[in-house]
């Protein structure tokens, strides 16, 4: 029987109805647990949760950015302006939707809907309260990186569909920037998977060695495939198993990921595709009304996705010191309150807003780069740095500087002697 934090909370709050709740849970699970899946997708940690969180993340980013520049930032709408992002979306929804003559009207109308859908689907892969997201399967890291590339293509096509000269200039800049920074983003995102591959290859290597020496079956076999290594849930769970976030192992890749993420979401100093002093609003010049509202929300969701992916790959996601991800077997048998899920969500939110805080600081420190500086930064600096971190890790693994191989050898020899 599958366990879920929702049922644990109900059983904890209403123990006198435990029998009825257990029967209800069993019936729903026999029907495929459709209602629970819908609750996860729509409410938590799905569409409603990530939409509210993305608006709050925008407010937090704008407040930090303003404070670092000795400004106030959003202030009047809601408590200290906390409702300002929502008010902006509502205002844009009420604005007139204008489509210039000559534009691809149908394609231009479909693009923001597609971008919004992509953003929400990408967030379904991010682990919020447990090691896996709503959508999780072997190799899902490759899929989510592919979806981020589709989002970049949607931006390029939007400027092309508008048939505006300013939009075309912004589209050309966006295309060069987004495509260039996809490469270091992917390389840095794959670095944690390389660490996971080595960590799980150590017991396999040792077992194969002992199998050759003794001619007996190995004590421990850990089946690992390429797709299982390229899984966000396994990367998150490995950090909890080791007890160390991968930012300590691959800090260069983390830095490359953050800078590439800023370029992907067009944050200062990578906002040259939307340089208002030069080309009005770039690829968004002809976007207004409901389309602009959807793109605004899609941008916030993509920002949250990037921060959530950084937290999962490099900071351990929901894992935190002193707490395991999810519930232990003993907790499940005793029907304990799911504190693991609660603290997992708290740790996830802390790490996400820590990443946003870093990005807000970087936005403040630098002025806008020229398009040639932006492209050179990706090809001449970030891509070599991403490869450098991978080479450093290979050297560290070869000399066993983490001590994983020697420790496993020692434990295994002790087990054989006993």
Blueprint of the fold:
Blueprint (H helix, E strand, L loop, with lengths): L4 H9 L4 H13 L3 H9 L4 H22 L15 H11 L10 H19 L16 H23 L2 H50 L11 H4 L2 H11 L8 H14 L11 H4 L9 H26 L14 H6 L4 H27 L5 H28 L5 H14 L1
Notes on the structure:
This protein is mainly alpha-helical. The chain has two domains: 1-42, no CATH class; 47-417, no CATH class. It has 17 helices and no strands.
Describe the structure using short key phrases.
mainly alpha; 418 residues
Helical percentage: 55-70%
**Major beta-sheet overview:** none
Low-pLDDT regions? 217-221
Quick one: how many beta strands? 0
Quick structural summary:
The chain is an all-alpha fold and 418 residues long. The protein has helices spanning 5-13, 18-30, 34-42, 47-68, 84-94, 105-123, 140-162, 165-214, 226-229, 232-242, 251-264, 276-279, 289-314, 329-334, 339-365, 371-398, 404-417. It has two domains: 1-42, no CATH class; 47-417, no CATH class.
């Amino acid at each position: 029987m599958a366990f879920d934090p929702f049922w644990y909370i109900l059983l904890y709050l209403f123990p006198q109805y435990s029998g009825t709740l257990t029967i209800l849970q069993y019936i729903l699970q026999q029907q495929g647990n459709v209602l629970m899946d819908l609750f996860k997708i729509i409410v938590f940690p799905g569409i409603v949760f990530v939409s509210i969180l993305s608006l709050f993340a925008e407010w937090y980013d704008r407040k930090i950015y303003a404070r670092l520049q000795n400004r106030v930032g959003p202030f009047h709408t809601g408590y200290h302006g906390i409702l300002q992002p929502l008010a902006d979306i509502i205002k844009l929804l009420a604005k007139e939707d204008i489509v210039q003559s000559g534009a691809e009207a149908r394609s231009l109308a479909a693009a923001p809907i597609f971008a919004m859908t992509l953003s929400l689907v990408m967030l379904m892969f991010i682990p919020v309260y447990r090691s896996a997201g709503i959508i999780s399967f072997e190799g899902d890291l490759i899929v989510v990186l592919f979806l981020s590339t589709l989002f970049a293509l949607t931006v390029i096509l939007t400027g092309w569909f508008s048939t505006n000269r300013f939009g075309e200039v912004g589209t050309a800049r966006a295309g060069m920037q987004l495509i260039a920074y996809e490469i270091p983003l992917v390389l840095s995102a794959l670095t944690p998977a390389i660490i996971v591959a080595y960590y799980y290859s150590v017991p396999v290597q040792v077992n194969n060695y002992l199998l050759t020496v003794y001619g007996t079956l190995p004590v421990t076999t850990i089946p690992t495939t390429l797709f299982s290594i390229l899984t966000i849930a396994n990367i998150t769970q490995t950090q909890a198993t080791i007890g160390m976030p991968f930012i300590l192992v691959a800090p260069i890749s983390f830095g490359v990921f953050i800078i590439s993420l800023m370029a992907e979401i067009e944050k200062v100093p990578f906002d040259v595709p939307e340089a208002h002093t030069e080309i009005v609003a770039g690829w968004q010049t002809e976007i207004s009304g409901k389309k602009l509202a959807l793109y605004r929300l899609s941008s916030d969701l993509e920002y949250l996705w990037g921060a959530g992916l950084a937290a999962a790959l490099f900071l351990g996601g929901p894992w935190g010191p002193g707490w395991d991800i999810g519930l232990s077997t003993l907790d499940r048998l005793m029907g304990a309150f799911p504190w693991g899920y609660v603290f997992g969500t708290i740790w996830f939110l802390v790490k996400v807003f820590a990443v946003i805080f870093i990005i807000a600081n970087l936005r403040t420190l630098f002025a806008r780069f020229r398009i040639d500086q932006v492209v050179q930064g990706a090809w001449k600096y970030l891509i070599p740095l991403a490869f450098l971190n991978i080479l450093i890790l290979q050297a560290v693994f070869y000399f066993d500087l983490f001590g994983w191989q020697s420790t496993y050898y020692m434990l295994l020899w002790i087990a054989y002697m006993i």
